[in-house]
Amino acid sequence: MSEKYETKAVTHGAEGVAHGAEACAAKAVRLDAADELAKSRELFALPDGVVYLDGNSLGALPRAVPGRLQDVAAREWGELLIRSWDESGWWTAPERIGDLISPIVGAAPGQIVVGDSTSVNIFKALVAAVRLAGNDRDEILVDATTFPTDGYLAESAARMTGRTLRPVRPEEVRDALGPRTAAVLLNHVDYRSGRLYDLPGLTAAVHEAGALAVWDLCHSAGALPVGLDEHSVDLAVGCTYKYLNGGPGSPAYLYVAARHQARFDSPLPGWTGHANPFGMTPEFTPADGATRGRVGTPDILSMLALETALGVWEGVGIDSVRAKSLALTDFFVECVRAYVPAGRVELVTPSAHVERGSQIALRCDDAGDVMRALIARGVVGDFRHPDVLRFGFTPLYVGFGDVERAARVLAEVL
Amino acid sequence: MSEKYETKAVTHGAEGVAHGAEACAAKAVRLDAADELAKSRELFALPDGVVYLDGNSLGALPRAVPGRLQDVAAREWGELLIRSWDESGWWTAPERIGDLISPIVGAAPGQIVVGDSTSVNIFKALVAAVRLAGNDRDEILVDATTFPTDGYLAESAARMTGRTLRPVRPEEVRDALGPRTAAVLLNHVDYRSGRLYDLPGLTAAVHEAGALAVWDLCHSAGALPVGLDEHSVDLAVGCTYKYLNGGPGSPAYLYVAARHQARFDSPLPGWTGHANPFGMTPEFTPADGATRGRVGTPDILSMLALETALGVWEGVGIDSVRAKSLALTDFFVECVRAYVPAGRVELVTPSAHVERGSQIALRCDDAGDVMRALIARGVVGDFRHPDVLRFGFTPLYVGFGDVERAARVLAEVL
């Protein structure tokens, strides 16, 4: 991390809150002035007076998106009509946009297709992983603490492939691995706590057991380096509406490592994943490459909005995003310590950088009421049942002044 | 059918083509003047000088859509951000829009949810149908002549439920039904020939054999009455980008008859189909009603474009659409007979109204070249391998003058 983001914790000592507040406010100004990603904020349309710390649920609107949507609807659809499938590049959008996501998650081109929801892609990836693992491996491990849709779809994948699903806590995965293990579905960052798991180490352990690693990147992609290729991940899925700012419910993506593509056997072999989709042959012959992960007709309006949204990444490296993300979350914790009376909130997110995603979760009594009060004062995070305040920090549009204000308003509310 | 659409076939006799052409042109004027759906055309943005007969592939743009998209992106997403899931009604869009489709396909409210692609919905519907049929029925029948994605997904559904898939021609379905039959997947209108199948009769036959009928409505919904409830269809799916004009790749829908909902057991049990989606419980408890057919986060931009597109149906009954559709296709055949030299094209679509969807398919040598020439002259249909010219007639924006011009230009090209 670069010097400019250094955020040594303020000791909440005898000088009292006033001194800490003054120090935080001054520091925010300094950090913002030195922030090389600050200019990215201009690429987003954010409402005046709002500190938006819910980009880990729905990313903010990139300014270029409404204009592109207008053009896609009025000209590409309205005027060119059916010709746009070729002339406007609609047909190849899933692969083209996949290749825009690739550098953000550390994948070489040709391994990601965009389309369907994360849940549907989890089903594809997990069933395909089980089939790649072969018939003598009859167990699927799934993170028991994960976002629940992963567990629901894993249960269905197990039921429909005749495997047993075994939910385990992430820290138990290494012990649970064995010759029965076919595949392991893990979340890179826990949606509630913001804890970052050890993708390189866990993937290596899964491979050592002869199984396949399937990663859900919903809460990490766009916020921190993933290194899919570098760490030999087998399959991965993720949504695009959090740190990738694709818009509400924008299409998800599926990563199939190049080495597995020829044997990727989808449970949803739709016509657009066919080697010759317009041949209309009765037999399904899968396309080469990641294309065989496609299913139905791509959802063009949402997909092209996403393509435009990904334009904010031009010239931005994921390492600088990660550096700022850690600085933002460090600084938020520092400001909370300075402003909020001791004992009123409890830090849920790990302090160690190596275990932290791009959010801070605080346990707090009456968390639901507290979040409503925060939102009424223009600080938007979200509440997770039963007692968690979640604050997400998107480095491309959140500044250090936002962070200071959020902590200050939180202290006022409490 | 009302008197005004009467379109008695012109006998292509000794008077020759010139007389027939004069008669066709005059008749088109009369028919357009009497067309009570003519005003609907104003609700669509169609390029000048184009006769658009490809609405059975991609429906035209309803004029209200770009404005709605602008509002959804700039205000609902950009300003209200995460609040829009409640305040802008995003969360309930799949059911709300399903209820807009219901009257078009003859379903009472509460039985249709919008989301995912047709292919994904076929998988859900067919697996659920097999599970509803019980373990002692081990065979799935699928229309062997259908749009191929139906067959591909049916094959996967069979493989993953341990059933056998048996492709049959639609006319063989009755003989193929038996005590082994779990479910039958049929297309209401064949995508290539435009043939309309006997949904009431086939559904009754399937039920008599104790099996479930799953219908694919892609090429019928919005063009003719379907009567899902009236004919006791069990499950149905359809796309929304053809006669429902939802836009390129707009979300598909799933119909689950009310009597089956409590036992509908989805192979894709995603979190948004959960009874308490924000409870984040590790066990999947399906929601009541059609909601349990939902999977992942709804794709809001595309979904709300579709909602606006469905506004063109306000005050329009499907029976009047069907009457005009038959008049248009009758008149097209009449004009083709009058203009095109005998023997140059062959009618693939059945002449009998009871067997005709809303398209006319003509077999023709060099069909690919002919279609390219037609499109260059502003008459847009499409080509289906190897030798079929397809012309789709969307009654809400195609007029009789368009039909006459299309046939005239076809004759010129030939």
Automatic annotation (TrEMBL), chains A, B:
Q: Might you give the EC number(s) for this enzyme?
A: 3.7.1.3
> InterPro entries of this UniProt entry?
Kynureninase, PyrdxlP-dep_Trfase, PyrdxlP-dep_Trfase_major, PyrdxlP-dep_Trfase_small
Query: Some GO term, biological process aspect, for this entry: which one?
Result: anthranilate metabolic process
Q: Which UniProt keywords apply?
A: Hydrolase, Pyridine nucleotide biosynthesis, Pyridoxal phosphate
Catalytic activity reported = 3-hydroxy-L-kynurenine + H2O = 3-hydroxyanthranilate + L-alanine + H(+); L-kynurenine + H2O = anthranilate + L-alanine + H(+)
Q: Please report the name of this protein according to its UniProt entry.
A: Kynureninase
Signal peptide range: none
Assembly and oligomerization: Homodimer.
Source organism per entry reads Streptomyces candidus
Residues where N6-(pyridoxal phosphate)lysine occurs? K242
The metabolic or biological pathway listed in the UniProt record of this protein is: Amino-acid degradation; L-kynurenine degradation; L-alanine and anthranilate from L-kynurenine: step 1/1; Cofactor biosynthesis; NAD(+) biosynthesis; quinolinate from L-kynurenine: step 2/3
**What cofactors does this protein use?**
pyridoxal 5'-phosphate
The terms describing its cellular component in GO are: cytoplasm
Biological role stated in the UniProt entry:
Catalyzes the cleavage of L-kynurenine (L-Kyn) and L-3-hydroxykynurenine (L-3OHKyn) into anthranilic acid (AA) and 3-hydroxyanthranilic acid (3-OHAA), respectively.
